[in-house]
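Box 3.1. Reading complex inputs
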Amino acid sequence: MTFDVQVEVMLRPGIADPEGATIERALPALGFEGVTGVTVGKSIRFQLDSESASKAQETATQMCEQFLSNPVIEDAAISVTQAQVGS
Amino acid sequence: MTFDVQVEVMLRPGIADPEGATIERALPALGFEGVTGVTVGKSIRFQLDSESASKAQETATQMCEQFLSNPVIEDAAISVTQAQVGS
């Protein structure tokens, strides 16, 4: 079975996020008020062949730990959904 | 009211994604088989003060069009959820 996997890798709370801070600083000058706590991370999507959703989740977790994220400074959120038939 | 907004900016289909291609090529050597269609994008999260969820969605869409994404080569998916009380 094929599963669609989405991995969201965000900096852990407390880790400096200069990209987010720059966006936040620029927003009022562009007419957007009331925006706080901007953080920028990565979103990685792929298709994974696996026996079951739990196996797919396990494989994705291993991939995150090994090289998709840096667990020292980043948190990874994984979501696995079964790929639509025909895709 | 405060809303949590997540914006996922991914390259449009057909646009070259060298980062995703590099990950995909590296995976078999690291022991992960059956992974295809790797695409890498950005995930941007922030809190937004707004009257209603629909207003928040509208503001986020404007932000995307103006500077969070490049509509020529990128698609943006916006999800708005009401922030939890106390956060």
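In summary: Chain A is about 30% helix and 40% strand.
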